[in-house]
């Protein structure tokens, strides 16, 4: 059997089995040392009492793990009794070593260390008085060093266990922190993908609904315009399919560039920016509402993520107008400022109640727009416009300079 395997077997033993083994080993060693020890002048020959004291010192070791200070106290008293009766000196030392080790390795050891100190001092004084040995004599030092070695061994084992427990706790904490960070990244990615899919599908379905209605109304009276409406439907479907394929491609890719530096997939990087606002405005064809776009301030370069977020907010706002507002006019204002980008989407329809109902029934449009703005440190507010009807969405997307 290899040493490593033997060590694993010892480590895997239950605590009670270890205590029984130590008690038996200490008892056998003590009986042997008492029976075969060298008798000095004046020593009492071993008898049943002497052996009984040695066995009792070993049996008490069975409770050393639960009551280490009490165990050492009983062992020390029996040790003193043994030598007071003039039995061969030093024979029952093995139980003392085990008891000293048990005190030093215990988690609560103040009382036990006090008992250990008293035992060391009393043993040194007794040996000095009995043998006439002086400080640092070999006869005195050998016993004292063995007692100190047992204490130091227990203290070393205790320190190692404490270090191991601290290391395992720190490792578990780091693992939990990594799991929490991973879960947070996955949640953020899931929300971002959900927003992308919602924006693409909702806008496409809104355009299809409007243009399908136009085609149905004009199919008999004006087939040409009905065909144009169906062409808009086909174009919207084609564009939506392209965006969805791109998003799925990013999710499946294993060598996607990490644009964030945190391992997150940048699905938003596949979306459109402000350059596509005009296409968005004309995608629904010639039917109302009429969509106008105005720009305020000098056009300046913006971070791609800011442009994508702005496009998605405008897209979702237009989608909600098409689905709920029954408006005739939508005015989109894009304001370029040195510290960010301002957006305002305003319609003249009756969409305030419809938008509110959509939000209360679990709609994701307003929530998604607010999340997009907040992710950049910006803000978004939406609500009805006065008493004349209509709805307005205002967003601010800051740019860190």
TrEMBL record:
Keywords of the record: ATP-binding, Kinase, Membrane, Nucleotide-binding, Phosphoprotein, Transferase, Transmembrane, Transmembrane helix, Two-component regulatory system
Pfam families with a match to the protein in the record: DUF7134 (PF23539), HATPase_c (PF02518), HisKA_3 (PF07730)
GO MF entries: kinase activity
EC number: 2.7.13.3
Reactions it catalyzes: ATP + protein L-histidine = ADP + protein N-phospho-L-histidine
Residue spans crossing the bilayer: 16-36, 48-67
Domain Histidine kinase/HSP90-like ATPase residues, every copy: 308-399
Domain Signal transduction histidine kinase subgroup 3 dimerisation and phosphoacceptor span(s) in chain numbering: 189-254
Domain DUF7134: from-to ranges: 15-161
Highest taxon listed in the record's lineage: Bacteria
Protein name as it appears in the record: histidine kinase
Organism per entry: Dactylosporangium fulvum
């Amino acid at each position: 059997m290899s040493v490593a395997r033997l060590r694993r077997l010892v480590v895997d033993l239950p605590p009670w089995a270890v205590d029984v083994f130590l008690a038996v080993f200490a008892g056998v060693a003590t009986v042997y040392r008492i029976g075969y020890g060298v008798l000095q002048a004046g020593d009492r020959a071993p008898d049943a009492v002497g052996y009984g004291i040695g066995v009792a010192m070993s049996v008490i070791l069975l409770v050393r793990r639960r009551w280490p200070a009490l165990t050492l106290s009983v062992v020390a008293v029996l040790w003193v009794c043994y030598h007071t009766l003039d039995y061969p000196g030093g024979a029952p030392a093995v139980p003392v070593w085990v008891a000293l080790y048990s005190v030093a390795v215990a988690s609560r050891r103040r009382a036990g260390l006090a008992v250990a100190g008293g035992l060391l001092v009393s043993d040194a004084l007794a040996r000095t008085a009995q043998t006439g040995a002086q400080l640092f004599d070999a006869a005195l030092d050998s016993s004292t060093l063995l007692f100190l070695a047992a204490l130091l061994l227990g203290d070393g084992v205790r320190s190692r266990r404490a270090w191991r427990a601290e290391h395992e706790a720190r490792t578990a904490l780091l693992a939990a922190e990594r799991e929490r960070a991973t879960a947070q990244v996955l949640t953020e990615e899931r929300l971002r993908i959900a927003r992308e899919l919602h924006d693409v599908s909702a806008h496409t379905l809104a355009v299809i609904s409007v243009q399908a209605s136009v085609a149905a109304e004009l199919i008999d009276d004006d087939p040409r315009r009905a065909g144009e409406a169906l062409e808009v439907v086909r174009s919207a479907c084609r564009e939506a399919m392209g965006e969805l394929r791109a998003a799925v491609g990013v999710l499946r890719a294993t060598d996607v560039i990490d644009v964030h530096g945190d391992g997150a997939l940048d699905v938003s990087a596949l979306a459109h920016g402000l350059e596509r606002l005009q296409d968005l405005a004309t995608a629904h064809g010639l039917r109302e509402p009429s969509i106008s776009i105005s720009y305020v301030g000098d056009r300046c370069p913006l971070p791609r993520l800011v442009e994508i977020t702005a496009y998605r907010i405008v897209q979702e706002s237009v989608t909600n107008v098409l689905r709920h507002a029954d408006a005739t006019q939508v005015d989109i204002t894009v304001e370029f400022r040195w510290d960010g980008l301002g957006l305002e989407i305003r319609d003249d329809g009756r969409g305030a109640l419809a938008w509110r109902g959509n939000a209360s029934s679990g709609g994701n449009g307003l929530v998604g727009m607010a999340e997009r703005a907040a992710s950049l440190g910006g803000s978004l507010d939406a609500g009805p416009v006065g008493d004349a009807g209509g709805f307005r969405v205002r967003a601010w997307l800051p740019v860190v300079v």
